[in-house]
Write a structure and sequence with these properties.
The complex is a heterodimer.
Chain A: H1 7-23, H2 29-55, H3 63-80, H4 84-106, H5 111-131, H6 133-136, E1 142-143, E2 151-153, E3 156-158, H7 163-186, H8 188-198, H9 200-205, H10 210-236, E4 238-239, H11 247-259, H12 266-284, H13 290-302, H14 306-314
Antiparallel strand pairs in A: 1-4, 2-3
Chain B: H1 3-35, H2 42-59, H3 64-91, H4 98-120, E1 134-136, E2 141-143, H5 144-166, H6 168-178, H7 180-185, H8 190-212, H9 224-237, H10 242-262, H11 265-282
Antiparallel strand pairs in B: 1-2
Classes of the chains: A mainly alpha, B mainly alpha.
């Protein structure tokens, strides 16, 4: 049974992309750069949401997939002098390959064990990036701007130092991951994933091999996260082990929760809001991450459905 | 030094690590066993213990023994109080839902960590050991304080074990672990048992933090490593299985000690994690867990 998104839903989601496209004409430089960053991080959150929101698997290790993308793209540029497109491909493949390997092992566990196992694998990945600091630059990181050549398509030349290129590349990435997640949610595969989220035992009883579906979800999620990481490395020309740290596993969880778990628009809204909340509070105090803690507790206590989830529950039940 | 003494030193270091780790992991395992929740903020209770030890030591500077004893008694009590407050204000309200609890304890982790950063600062601070003597082996001298840490940890482990298996409160805990509703029907105050277990788990981590701080400096980010190692131990031992936890802590601690002496500590942690992966592939319920858990 294939469902199709209604015209209303398609128009709403296409509208978000159009708003983002037009916004670059009006935004002052500071917010222009911020929004480019937000769109890359939002793609990461979209990848995370595929696994957490639509398959019901809570991972605490997505930093490793993001970092796989960052290193896959950054290190191939730095050491092998890859062009931007090849490096991006290498980043996506790294995320995809790592997600496949981790999924094969971690999905043998369920529930709480799954979460602990992903957390541990991510920590091992983080330590590995520190251990091989001669290649990765460790926590100092590497700046790749001088190794990264401009991208030539036909007679056009795009330099990644140009803010407009950054913005539109980030927008392109976000639009593609947004579309992929939407297509997935409405596809027969997506319906099975949602069924697994709602009741895995029953789905298995209906004859679906839930392990294979969960693995597929993990691979898609890891590939999108890797793509976000690769884009981040290319646009902001920095790779470092920070991106593999536990912080970057918790951020996508936070963004998704704030926006609304299992909603298509949740990741971009949550990422945008939290980016600015953290940005403003970091100007006020050194201990600005306390905001992250408080928001998480408040969400759990009073707004478990997040922004879009609450809106869907109260006013617009048709939101996907 | 030849291989023999080197190995002996590694075993010694490993045993000290293992016993401290067992304390921390026992706290995590107890909370999971009885309450069926994972406490991501567990490492922060360890850190709070260490930071409080520094605070008490600086309060009565000049008498390291007094400061240390104060920390050893009051530190865990304060941390236990924090845990009871967290249980009352947050966990109880979300009805101990497994996934919400994880998110809430991540929030708690950030809150505790950042409050400590504000009040205590971002520097690592050393605490003087309460007693200083060296035990001389034929090949090398060894810090006597580390042996005391090992002894104290072992004593606390045995005490906790006896409390769980031989006392009325321990019985109520085990009853709650086996069947919460049935325990309630038999008059066990389940809510209070939950609060007590959460506090006890936090206090075990805090004691480990107090004991460790003269060996390792106190820092607001020091909670990450004990959390990770406790997770490894608890998974290998089987979630909620106390005997498994102790055995696994000894295995992991000693292995970690040996690998750290011969290779690098970073590599030791990576290898420990991969070992866990192997265990999970073979036995998803942990080495000592039930097949179906």
């Amino acid at each position: 049974m294939r469902q199709r998104p209604s015209g209303k839903i398609l128009a709403l989601h296409a509208g978000i992309i159009v708003v983002l496209l037009v916004a670059q004409l009006f935004l002052p430089p500071y917010h222009h750069t911020n929004l480019a960053r937000i769109m890359v991080f939002a793609s990461f959150a979209v990848g995370y949401n595929v696994l957490m929101g639509y398959t019901g698997l809570l991972s605490l290790g997505h930093a490793m997939f993001f970092a796989a993308g960052v290193y896959g793209a950054g290190l191939t540029v730095f050491h092998l002098h890859f062009g931007a497109i090849e490096a991006f491909g290498a980043g996506v493949l790294s995320g995809l390959a790592l997600a496949t390997a981790i999924g094969l092992v971690a999905l043998r566990t369920t529930g709480v064990s799954f979460l602990i196992v992903t957390l541990m694998f991510a920590q091992a990945a983080f330590l590995t990036t520190l251990h091989f600091n001669q290649i990765t630059g460790g926590d100092q990181g590497l700046v790749i701007s001088s190794e990264l050549a401009s991208l030539r398509i036909g007679s056009f030349e795009f330099s990644f130092a140009d803010p407009a290129v950054k913005y539109n590349a980030a927008l392109l990435l976000f639009a593609v991951s947004f579309a992929v997640s939407m297509a997935l949610v409405y596809s027969p595969v997506g319906r099975v994933l949602i069924a697994i989220r709602e009741n895995e035992a029953r789905t298995r009883m209906l004859g679906y091999n839930t392990y294979k579906y969960k693995l597929l979800s993990m691979i898609i999620s890891g590939a999108i996260s890797g793509a976000a990481g690769a884009m981040y490395a290319l646009l902001f020309s920095y790779v470092g082990s920070t991106f593999a740290s536990i912080q970057y596993s918790i951020f996508p969880l936070l963004w998704t929760l704030v926006g609304g778990v299992g909603t298509l628009m949740g990741p971009i809204l949550g990422t945008g809001l939290m980016f600015y909340v953290v940005d403003v509070s970091s100007g006020l105090t050194h201990s600005h991450l306390i905001v992250v803690g408080i928001v998480l507790v408040v969400l759990v206590l009073w707004f478990p459905r997040g922004i879009v989830g609450t809106v869907r529950e109260r006013w617009f039940p048709w939101l996907p | 030094m030849s291989l023999g003494p080197h190995l002996f030193l590694a075993l010694l270091e490993g045993t000290v690590t293992a016993l401290v780790l067992a304390l921390t992991a026992l706290g995590l395992s107890l909370v999971f066993g009885v309450m069926r929740i994972v406490n991501i903020a567990h490492g922060e209770f360890f850190m709070l213990g260490a930071v409080l030890a520094w605070w008490f030591a600086s309060l009565v500077s000049g008498w390291p023994v007094v400061g240390f004893l104060l920390a050893l008694i009051l530190g865990p009590l304060i941390v236990g109080g924090v845990a009871v407050a967290a249980d009352w204000l947050i966990l109880r309200r979300i009805d101990y839902d497994p996934e919400s609890t994880i998110v809430a304890t991540i929030g708690l982790l950030y809150i505790i960590q950042q409050v400590v950063l504000t009040l205590y600062g971002g520097d690592a601070k050393a605490v003087e050991a309460p007693i200083y003597f060296r035990v001389s082996f034929p090949w090398f001298g060894y810090s006597g304080y580390k042996l005391i840490v090992a002894g104290a940890s072992a004593l606390l482990l045995v005490t906790t074990w006896i409390a769980i298996t031989r006392t009325e409160i321990g019985l109520q805990m085990r009853a709650t672990q086996l069947d919460e509703e049935m325990a309630q029907a038999f008059g066990v105050p389940v809510r209070r048992v939950y609060a007590a277990v959460f506090a006890l788990g936090a206090m075990l981590a805090a004691v480990a933090g107090v004991l460790v701080v003269p060996i390792q400096q106190a820092h607001y980010l020091m909670g990450g490593d004990p959390l990770l190692l406790s997770f490894i131990v608890v998974i290998i031992g089987g979630l909620g299985n106390l005997r498994g936890t102790l055995v696994a802590a000894l295995i992991i601690g000693i292995t970690d000690g040996i690998i750290s002496v011969f290779f690098s500590p970073t590599l030791a942690k990576v290898l420990a994690t991969l070992l866990v992966a192997l265990v999970l592939v073979i036995r998803p319920g942990g080495l000592f867990g039930d097949e179906d858990s």
